[in-house]
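Q: I'm building a small set of examples for a reading group on sequence design. Run inverse folding on the following structure and report the sequence directly after it, with nothing in between.
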């Protein structure tokens, strides 16, 4: 990921944003960073609540922000390229959202974009998954999870979702069939915290509150009775990744690594070769819980966000912190990174 470590100070171009890096959390600010310099380019005030999750649209133009009861969309370049858009306390400016998705009650805990940006999915403490039409800001579908949702991801085939909840369930939702096709309960009454699906659709990974990771092989097959393609899941391994809460698990874009972050202040990187999931390295430096991680497009770097108010850019080949993003006044609990090429 050349752009992240470049010394260039050229402003991001609105039509070809090279790197969009955003963090947020409990200080009611959303901070956009110049990834290569570590400087905060602009800050948006989010007065409604804390920010729980962030997701950047595939074309890098829109930022989805999950707070309490709503998801709001912001223009990633709303305040231009000036670095002076802060008040005296550094709280940032009030930027009107482009649209607001209302309907959840309680915190919205997860969001994910469709590959073309036509819709996005959100999950919440109210036990629902909602699929939103980004053009109308209306919920096209609502699924009852029957427990507070902690995470949701979209399968690379764009036709299925994977989600997990506070009751310990991992569910697969078939959008074609408009319902839940699989329900997995790895450990009874142990909350499942996070889910991730490999970019090639080869496996599903889920992590829970006891620091354990579960892996299923995913295969597409044709049912005999309906002659329809359907994903089949085969458990392949489980392992103890941390001694306490795992807050997020994320497979790298090249599917070679799994990152897990935890209440133990570390990020661990696991090799996924042959579904063995061996420990590659431990990233140490944060002082408090690490809440969220995001890989670079080339899988060479990782950004993490922590309760110590700091986000860090890690070079995975060396395990070193390459940049530190300082500025949040309270816990930074979510990070989003998009440095994919749009060419």
């Amino acid at each position: 990921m050349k752009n992240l470590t470049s010394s260039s100070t050229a402003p991001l171009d609105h039509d070809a944003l090279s790197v969009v890096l955003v963090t947020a959390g409990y200080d009611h600010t959303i901070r956009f960073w110049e990834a290569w310099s570590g400087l905060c380019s602009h800050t948006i005030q989010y007065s409604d609540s804390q920010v729980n999750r962030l997701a950047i649209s595939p074309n890098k133009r829109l930022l989805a922000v999950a707070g309490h009861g709503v998801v709001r969309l912001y223009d990633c370049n709303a305040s231009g390229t000036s670095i002076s858009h802060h008040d005296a306390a550094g709280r940032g400016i009030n930027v009107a959202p482009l649209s607001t998705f209302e309907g959840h009650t309680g915190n919205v805990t997860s969001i994910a974009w469709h590959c073309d940006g036509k819709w996005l999915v959100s999950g919440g403490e109210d036990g629902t998954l909602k699929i939103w039409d980004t053009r109308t800001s209306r919920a096209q579908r609502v699924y009852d999870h029957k427990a507070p949702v902690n995470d949701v991801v979209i399968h690379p085939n764009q036709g299925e979702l994977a989600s997990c909840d506070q009751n310990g369930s991992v569910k697969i939702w078939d959008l074609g069939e408009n319902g839940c096709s699989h329900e997995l309960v790895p450990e009874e009454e142990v909350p499942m915290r996070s889910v991730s699906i490999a970019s090639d659709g080869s496996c599903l990974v889920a992590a829970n509150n006891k620091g354990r990771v579960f892996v299923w092989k995913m295969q597409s097959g044709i049912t005999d009775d309906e002659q329809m393609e359907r994903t089949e899941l085969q458990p392949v391994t489980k392992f103890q990744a941390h001694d306490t809460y795992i807050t997020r698990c994320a497979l790298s874009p090249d599917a070679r690594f799994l990152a897990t972050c935890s209440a133990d202040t570390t990020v661990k990187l696991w090799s996924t070769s042959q579904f063995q999931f061996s420990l590659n390295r431990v990233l140490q430096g944060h002082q408090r819980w690490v809440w969220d991680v995001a890989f670079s497009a080339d899988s060479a770097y990782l950004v993490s966000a922590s309760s110590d108010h700091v986000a860090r850019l890690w070079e995975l080949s060396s395990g070193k912190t390459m940049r530190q993003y300082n500025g949040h006044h309270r816990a930074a609990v979510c990070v989003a990174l998009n440095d994919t090429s749009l060419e």
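The chain has one helix and 27 strands.
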